[in-house]
Each structure stands twice: as C-alpha cells, then as structure tokens.
Amino acid sequence: MRSMFTLSRRVFLLAGAGSVAVAACAPGARSSTRLAVYKTPTCGCCTAWVDHMRGAGFEAQVNELPDLRSIRSTQGVPEALASCHTALIGGYVLEGHVPAADVRKLLTEHPEAVGLVVPGMPLGSPGMETPDGQREPYETLLILKGGGTRVFARHA
Prior knowledge:
By secondary structure, the protein is of the alpha/beta class.
C-alpha cells in the first residue's frame, strides 16, 4: 500500500512539473513581446512607430487595412481617442504613438484597463520624430474600462 501511494505521489508531482514546463514553453508565454499592429497602407509615421517598437525588442506583425474603425470599436477605443494606428498586445490595445517604455510599464503593472493612447500626433513621440529634434510635451493616457481616461505617463 505504501509503495502505491509513493508511486501515485511521484506521478502526480512529475505531471505537475511537466505541466509547468509546457506552460512556460507555450506560445502565450512570450505574448508580452508580440504586437499585432493595424494601420492603413499609406501611413509613414505608423511604420516609424513599428520600427521604434521593434528596436525596443517587440515582435510586430503589421496588418494593413483601409479603415481601422472596426478594430478600434471591437477593442473598446472611444472614437474621440482614435489615432492613425492601433495595436494589440497582452490583452491591451495601444492607440497612436505610445512609447515602448510605457507599453513595458503597462505589461508589468497590468492595470484593469482597455489599454493606452497617445492622443493626436505630438512631435517627438515615437514615429513622429523630426530632423531638428523638435519635441512637444505629451501624455500617455490609460483607457479605462468605462471609456474614461487617466494620465499614465508624461513626456517632455
């Protein structure tokens, strides 16, 4: 009887350890760097933002669509916060020129929210750099579940 209990306990422990190993290797385990980007075919600043994200270690899959309204609507982005591109990562939506550092902070803190947005297209934000280095101060906003926002980060 004792040896059967020991065997069962070993099998249980090995099965548990195997489950942990499989989960660690599963595709979702690396999802914190996988980014699905939706943009229109003619947007150059969107391409520059994707380059910024890739340079920061994110794996971006770009999807070109003639119109992004359905993506934004499906993901809970209020039309008033719409920008030139929309991205999805780790269960969150990113709208506009959100810096990679803010995305990393979002994924680390994991707040109860829809995602992040940088309203407008501020000069100096990722993808909106200028040759002379001109910058405008801007804020990254956290999009809350009810559609409201709060400041997530400030950039000078």
